[in-house]
Fold these 2 entries.
Entry 1:
Amino acid sequence: MLNIEHLTKRYGDHTVVDDLSIHIQPGELCAFIGHNGAGKTTTIKSCCGILQFDEGNIMIDHISVKEHPIEVKKRIAYIPDNPDLYEFLTGIQYLQFIADIYRVPAGVREERIHHYADAFQLTKDLAQRVSEYSHGMKQKLVMIAAMIHEPKLIFMDEPFVGLDPVAAHTLKQEMRSFCDAGGTIFFSTHVLEVAEKLCDQVVIIRKGKLAAFGSMEEVKGSSSLEDVFLELEGEKDHA
Amino acid sequence: MLKILLQLRLRELLAGLTKRKNRGYAKNLSYGAYLLLIAGAYVFCGYSIFRMFSDLAKPLASLNLGTLYFGYSSVIGFGLAMIGSVFAAQSQLFEAKDNDTLLSMPVRPSAILASRMITLYIQALLYEALMIVPSGLAWFISSKSFSFVHILNWIIPTLFLPMIAVTLGCLLGWVLAIASSHVQNKSYLQIGVSMVLLIGYFALFGFVTSEMDSFSAGINLLTGQTLKSIWPAYQYGLACMGNWISVLNVVLVSAIPLICAWVLISKFFLHVVNEHHHVRRKMYVEKELRVLSVRRALVWREKKRFFADGSYVLNAGLGILMAPIMTVAFLIFQGDVRSFLNNVLEIPLKNGQFAQEFSNATADIAMLAVTVIFCILTISITITAPSLSLEGKTIWHAGILPVSGLDFLLAKVDLQMMLTVPVFLVCSTVFQFFLSGSILARILLLISPVLMELLMALAGIVLNVIHPKFDWTSSQQCIKRSLPVTFCVLGGLVLIIGSAMVYFQWVMEVMSPTTYLAVCTFIMAVLCGALFAWLRTAGVRKLSGYYSL
């Protein structure tokens, strides 16, 4: 589903992502972990077609992001860490706009909007302007917007930030259901406990380079993900 | 503390205009040109006002009516400052994005307000100075009174007068901030109040100029009583003519209300800035959802953004009303317009300056004049020029949604065309019934303004793609004070004035105005094609570089 081959991204002399290669299969829930400034957001934005990368290739559902970006974008969704939304629209207007862009048919869109809005307990606020939403409500709205066109692959950048416990629990459930139904999720997070419980695959990046990649069991073994992560950080510092 | 806050305010005001190392030579050159253009526009307006007031100053100086002259010019200056102050006060005092940050720090609300009111005073002073400085200079030159005392008597009250506009602006801004927190669609309130202020200003301007005309004609000197009822203006007039008691009166009547307003608003500041949840929450009711095509959805979004921001509508879209107003005015004053055109345009015909072929087609003149005026009106409509900047931090949507960059940009052009073309076509059709002209002139009346509008829309979006500003704290920075808007308007003016100059200097003896306008229309079409080609290639490439900002 997601094939990143030798991805390299530079800003001037500084290499932010260096020769990164990752392969994620359909139906997998993959956590993307790294320290601040490791290159997680750059990698995700490159996959979404938001950032132009310098070297390498990214294929989503066997389609190149560089050569056919529009086709790729029809199949994916992106949830940023700090969503800036159109404040002049109401919640429902924003969802309708997204549904129009992704050409979600009329009957289907109503059903999906209502399903996800109920799941995230946002239904009663859909008539309010986005300008009146709290950060958490905006997070929920952008998640609903990401799901209504039933993408094959969802990229999330620290999705649990700003969510209340109920919403975080709902999100975890929806993420699991989505992947169980064949979808793929690739998300960055600092909440290692959630990643450990929820995910099938884990990618650890350190200073732009791949530090570890594989199934959760392969990467963490008998220790915790936190121990593995700290060990990888500490190991390189001692070397 | 006040000094720190003032530095912050001034830095914000000047952000984007100062040279930056990593901005590149070309962009710094553009910003330099932009500053020069602003200064040039200021000088040009000031000179025009100077010329206008010079004609009034001569007769009034001979009648020793300086008090009335300065009094009435201060009224016009006050009106100008007032229009600028009201919404600036509302957005800068009560809706500033750093309110929460500053209030969470050990900073008194009075200090926050003082720093902002000083910035408002500087803005009001610049607005008033545009009127008062040229009118003052016109008086001193006409009356030949240039002594140090005379100048001082003029400068001191002039420096204090804008405080009245700031005081009223802050108080009205306070009322608007409270009223806005109780309505769902704040932009409609803003538009309504702005229209009232604008109409009031033009009525005031008309009243003052007719009063001044009657003085200079020696008619109805008793109308000077009207000025006495506007006591601050009357005192200003007396102060400028050397009355030191009046100077003191102006200082006191300007400064004391401002200080009182500052104290009063400081007391209620916290309450007002937090007063934004009084709007009754609308409960969502499930209903059938409408479906739009991708292109229509993009245009719909642009339309929603446009009408959600009162200052966007007023500054970028008010020109749309001018064509219908002009059409209605023509229908009412038809006779006067026709005789004016005959009187003005008979001259080149009598001197044989127009091309031979044209001398038999005098009926085209009125139609061509309307066409050119409509083309000039399109310059005032600048909907696309700030539209990319207004995306602000939501620009990431353009990167992630499955729409091409070109469709994304063209939706902005579509909105401008959608709002303007029907209006121009209807007005052009009305004129078709009331004016006579050749077939070519009739066709040009229909298509030239539309093509000019398309040219302005494309030029606006091209300029905004080249010079976007996504990190704004107030949308006014993009709508009013941005480089793309300024260049777009000035570029349009240069195009029209330049074309007219070329015709009257070199072409009028070899080509009729109708044929020349047809040539210009063709050139506009070519320019539209060139701008569209740039947008399709380099424009889309540039846009993709902004997705991650």
Entry 2:
Amino acid sequence: MRIAWWGLALLLCLQFPAAQAGDEERKLEAVFIGRFASYIEWPAKPRDRFVITLLDDNPFGSLLDDLYRDKRIHNKPIELRYATRLDQVGETDALFITLSSSAARAAAIDHAQRNGILTISEAKGFAESGGIIQLDFVEQKARIKINHAAALKSGLRIGAPLLSIATVLRGDKL
Amino acid sequence: MKPLHGTLLALAVAGQAAAADKAVKETNDYYQRPLEQLLRVETQAKAAVGSRGGARDALDAEVPIDIITAAQLQSTGQTELLRALAVLVPGFNAPRPSITDGTDHAPPFTLRGLNPDQVLVLVNGKRLHQSSLLHNNGTVGRGSSGVDLNTIPLRAIERVEVLRDGAAAQYGSDAIAGIINVILKGYGQHSQATVTYGRTGEGDGITRQATLFHSLPLAGDGFVNLSAEWRDRGATNRAGPDAGDGGRINAQFGDADTQDGLFALNAELPRGDATLYLHGLYNQRRSSAGAFYRTAGDARNIAAIYPDGFLPRIEPKILDFSATAGVRGVLDDGARWDLSYTHGHNDYHFYVNNSLNTSLGLATPTSFDSGATRYTQQILNADFSKKIGLHTVAGGYEFRQERYRIVKGDPASYMLGAADNFAYGAQGFPGFSPDNEVSASRRAHSLYGDLKYAISDHLMLDAAARAEHYSDFGSALNGKLALRYRATDDLLFRSSVSTGFRAPSLSQSHFSYTGTYRNSNDAAAQFWGNFAVDHPVARALGATDLKPEKSRHFTLGMVFQPSSQLTASADVFVTEIRDRILPTGYISAYSLSSLSPQAAAVLAQNNIDGAVYFTNAIATRTRGLDLRLDYCQELDNGARLKLVGAYQRSRTRITDVNQAPDVLGVNMTDLILDPFTKVLIEGSQPADAIKLWSKYSQGIYDAVLNLNRFGKFYSVSAYDRVSFAAKWTVDGEIAVRLKKDVTLALGGVNLLDVKPDKWGRTDDSLVGAGKVIQYSQYAPFGYNGAYYYVRVGVDF
């Protein structure tokens, strides 16, 4: 009987999903998504919720849901959506892209530009290839790279406080 | 439900809930901070070594890994990677050997009290070649060849990952004590130039170093990073008086006088889903150190040439380079692949100056080319990995080709002339003779696979296997099972069992270094020295082809991270190695009283006084404990405090002795395990070590304080074991940013000028209290005493 109880306890430990990703980089990334959005102005949209969509793998576990459950961006409650394919991405304000293929990322960027969506990714070369915000970690610190021209093309206006702390790509790298 | 069971369940549930609450609270805390502050948050370092599933931090690592950052390396004040790691990594031992021939100029290092060749060194995850030098004197690492870490420019390094576990099932030969993975600076780096000047408290050991690191960004976040370094480290001398020379100090016992030119390249060029990459290292070294002094009246001196005697100087020129070129990418389904080619080469060329060949009489030259050892390694590697849900499957193939050469010196460096029957060759370091020349090679094919299987969100199983076939000794199959149990978000339990091996190095199989003398003017020359295992004489004396050393490993540990600021870990380990390769003792009729008549006849028939060869000799067990604590705190005044504490204890014991060749008629203990060798293996390295590194940063100031405890060690004098007490040392550095991009640092290593215990009274003529050599070769922090430095760095 005692063994059964120990086994049950172990099973509970095994079955309870990890509530959060403990990784500090992930925590910061989760925070940055919403914080970036608060410095960006979208063309007026009739939605009553601010929608953040993750495209492809979800590396955050339940972290985003827990973090944004009681938050508001641009005075709207936040809705999180998870898509594994581009055609599953509906109307959204921000798209966090974890796709590993550059062609798939390019398609996502193209879709986002046509629909006024903020794109964020940690993929190398993301900003240069037309993504709006690239989030890197170099020597254990976050760095932000912004493609300003891509933002303008998507109809987004990025606030000065965000631009001032980022490496800003200008010109025609769309 | 019994109370205990209810409590257990409640604790399990509560533990999960508490961890989740903590993570949400920390993330919410980040959410409230200004963006600028978020960019200053320093995340935990991640390591890729030991896993084919990508980099992970301490709480995700299935094996213990230390991560040493570039900032930590720089803050040690050391100009060489070897010395910086000795300051920062517990269980990393790097004494300062002196008067040990080639070893003075490329000192060995060890992990966990094992041998230099039982550590695998990688650069950007690719195997780095070993030096061609075989440590052949009485130093730590005797009988082995290791990697020369000082060929890597310190400023080119982004971080060093030290995996403290056996990993031969993943990486192949040598990964027994652990792996050191040096990651070169990559994407997003700024350019930097530094100049450093330092000297010991006694005014010698003047070190001048100039470095330049330049990063050139390329399209698509590619980069070309170039590092160049010039390093001039002056000699130190802690020799005592020579009673046989009127009490004057005539020897040099200390660091060699060494000049290094170093160059490093690291480049990546992304193209779509593929990235071309290239990294390389180049090092040219000139070095000079003394042998023992030959006094005026010494039989090895020719007074007409050196009326006051002479100090032969061994002055090698060492060339070392490596390059890796490859391409890696990702397929549409997320599978990752990597193809690479690595070429590494080491040329250790011995020159001897201020010397003579006594046997050549007055016709002797005073400078000699004593020949060279060379080692070349080429590797073709193909890797793939794919994540399938929470699981990762990885595998690959590797082809490795090695070549080892011994090149003869000039004739005067090794010959026995007519003017003397005993003092042959260049005094200090007689050259390699034509008999010693060798060119040996081998090939190895390896297939390996790695499965990381998530049994649940909390329980991860890592299974790895690697099959290898070497053209010289045959095949090896090794495996590893590691279990990682994430009890809560704060707490990780981990354990691993694995097998491993170390292929006998080509230098151990083929090293040959013999000398000659005559018993009388009429007699034929007699030979003595080291014979390769395939030499007919060695064969006749029982030598066989060397087998690989085989190892078994067990680790059990835990990681506790109660907050993002604090991480603590504890790991115990056991490493068993059998068939460890050692040089035999001197096989001669007069040194081994029970030597068989048959063996004595072999020696006599071949005009050999005595012989040494390598053999698989003993089994050892190493047990130990690693404790580590990392703490980082952002203070209210904007300051940051970082603390890293580490304790390491390891103890190696000889557990078994192989049978000696029957032909010798002696047992292996008599043949190999003299007191010197036994103490070298079991006691010459500190049994424990404590490292306490701290850094306080505020505004334009950084202050670093570093406490080290080097544990007790043993050495041997006249067959008696002598103990040397543990010592504490203190290092410190103050750095101030004078302008935005200019930093001035002042610091000291071993500020309290602590020195190891000196030898006591001995019967030895050179080693002992008040004699030429006053300190043990094994002293883990050397015997230079305090060292002070100033460094200026400019970012651009």
